[in-house]
Structure formats: C-alpha cells, structure tokens
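dude i think i finally got it to work??
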Amino acid sequence: MKITRRWGSMVLAAILALGLLSPSALAEEVGFSPVRTYMDQFADVSPGDWYYETVKALYELGLTNGKGGVFDPGGDLTGAEVIAMAARLRSLYETGDSEAGPAAWEDGGLWYQPYVSYLQERGVLGRELEDAYDRPATRAEMAHVLAGALPESLFEPVNQDTVTAGQAAGQYLTDVGGGTPYQEDILRLYSWGIAGGVDEAGSFLPEENISRSQAAAMVARLAYGELRLTLDWEILPSYSRRGASMEDLVESDGTFYLSPMPDEKEKIDADVRYMLSQGERRISLEYPAGTLTSSFMDALIRAFLEAARNYVEQTYNNVSAPYSPKSASVTLTFSSSLYGEELVERYREETMAYALAVRDRLWETGQLAETMTEYEKARVYYAWICENCRYDHAQQSMSHSGYRLFHEGVAVCDGYTAAYNLLLKLEGISCGAYTLGDHIWTTAELDGRLVHIDVTWGDQSYGVEYRFFAMTELDAISRLQSA
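look at this
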C-alpha cells in the first residue's frame, strides 16, 4: 500500500517549519478559530514526534486538554474522551468556541454529560455508547463518533473509488466488512481521507483500542483539509499473486514430529512441510540418549534431503547436522550448494520475482485464463519453459537452479523442474518431484489425475515435444530410458 499526503500537506509542513503560517492561521482559513496558544504544555510531546503538529493544533483549537501536564500519546482514549473531543470540534465549527455548545448542557453532573447531550441533540450520537464512557474506546467506536462530528457536506469522497476497488479485489481494508461495527462510518473516514490504515493492506483494526496520538491525527484531518490523505493503493488484477513468497507455496496443517525415524517418510515430509511453510531453514529434533549414532544420522540426513528434494522449487539441496553421540538433540540446517549461506534468501526472493513476472505476462496476454483447466494451464507453462530455455550441456552449477532458467534461459533437469514446479504452485496446482538416477522431473495432480511431466525432455531443438507432458509413471520411465 502506498499512502501519500496531498501535495498541500507537504507545503503545509514546509510553511509551518518556516514560521510563515501557524496552525492557528490555517484553522482560521478553513473556518475554525483557535482559542489558545500551545507553548509545549505537554511534557511528553516533542517537536520531533510524528504527532507533534497535530497535538499542537488540537490544543490550540481547544479540542484536547491532555492529562495533568502530559498528552499520553500512546495511551487509550475512553469513550467519554472521544465524545468530548468530537463535541468540542462540532462546537468550534458552529460557534467558534470549542466549549460554548456543550456549556449549554451543564447540569453539575458527570464531567462528560454536557458533551454527550450536545452531540445527542445534534443527532450525532444516540445511546449506543453508554457502556463505553468509562472504558477504552475501540477504533470502530471512534470512527462512529468522528464520522458524524461535522456536516458531511464539508468533505469530498476523494478516495471513494480507491476504497471500493481495494475492498472488491480483496487486497485492502479486508478487516472491515458486513459484520464490522460501524462499517459505514469507517468507510466514510477512508473515503474522506481521514483514515488510511495502519499497515500496507490499509487495515483499520476496528476492534482494537484507539490511541490518543492516532485520534489526534484523525481529528486534525477533520479540521484541516490540507492534512487529509489521498490513498494511492495499487489494485492488482484478480489473478495476480504479487507479494507471494516461497513459504506461501507449501501447505502444512501444523503437524510436527519431534523424533521421526529415518524410515518414517510421512513424518519427515510433515516436518519438512512445516519448516518450509514457516519460512525457516532449520529443524530441531529430540531423540532418546544413545540414538544419534553415525549410521543413524547418515540415514536421517538422507531421508530429510530426499523429502526436501520433493520441494525442488524451494532451492534446498543440502542438509547439515552437527551432532554428538552423547546428545539427545540435533538441528538440521538446509541450504543450497549453488550459492553461499548469505545468498540463499536473496536467490529465493529473486527467483520468486522472476516467476511472478512470467505468470503476470501470461495472464495479461490471455495465454492463461480463469476458464482453463489445470491441465491446460500446466501445458501453457510447459510450452513457455521449452520455448524460453535451452539445456546447459556444460552443466554449470547455477544451471541446477530455477533462478538461472528465469534469469538467463539456461538450465539442466533440476533447474527445469524447480522453475516449472514454482509456476505450477503459483496456480495452486499440487506438484512434487520424481527422481530416478541422476534425473528429476515433475509429478502433478491435474484436475484430479496424477501425471508425470518431464519439461527437460520436452525442450527439443526443433521445438516443444509434448509426448513428455502428462505421462503415466510407466510412460515417464520407459520414455526416459529410450530417449
């Protein structure tokens, strides 16, 4: 998510820094009149804080009084404090005095009652927040009060189209839906540029408590048009998987076995899947004392390496496990023999970036479409690799990686298979790897049918050879032997 303030807010910051226009003067310009001057009354608000100018502006407008000489920017606001802030804003707009409106409702009772009564009389508030007066207000409750604090005619829905598109695509503001309290009020604040979200997905976190600094920022945007946000959300096509990572491609139900034996392939596979799905490269195991003999460790490492090879797109082809026969624990570390330890993550990320770019191009050009079967999609990727890669007869080390296939169009069998499996998994197609001797190819479940696909042998000098696509296991072995 990219959120940019309008250019006016940057000009505002520069002007304020030069002392040419104070927040008080700006307030007068947009119809609000300051009631006092901020002289660093809050000991916990410093000029370098991101919320300094908004807190300063709110104090000068009479919208906040702090808490005994401090503002407590990270503290919670109670429901009563939220209502008081909104009532002062409304009074400032209507009368030029932040307290004049509520003052008419003074009755000697609870301190916040005049503010509640004032907003109720204006139709901003009913009795829905009666249980929130003395407890921390949620962000949704804050949005509800702020959305009605000023006449709607004062705001332009500058972000309406962006918010609608972002939610429709399921990419932004996903935590605000039909069951969210005060959904419409939250969406109005986004539309007006009062709220922009707390993360890259524009999330609002409606059930969390609102902090005093966050509230100050939103109220300041209500008062100052120049501080409002213009949302620049990048709405990706529905087919896009941009942002996907290697760990997203591996499914795990969370099962992990602490002491799998070398012959327990299903348990070892579960451990490898769990590790990969967590984006980790290490597995720590525990065994009874005396178990970690040389022969046991050799068998265990071979078993884990075989399991990891089934996820060839993950790039790991090496396992190390220093151990002591006297120890009951051992940690297996997965790496790649193709590049140094410090480069593993870099190559994984770059390989994924290449694969996502290929996928997007095929979807954008219509070579892939929602109406296609898994078989048809797998065939498109098969053809793409065969047409865009050549076999490296020199057998250079990096040719064993999917990275070189995408980057330079050169590979050997495990590079072909790694790249192809990565593309298939980005389509949600379940696949693995089949090894026979020193050759490896793809196994995939296409539309419910298990097939073997040897994209390496499909890449022929005269073009794409489709007889190596969607084979049975018997066909794959026999064709390899006769090729």
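Residues 182 and 401 are 51 Å apart (CA to CA).
im so relieved honestly
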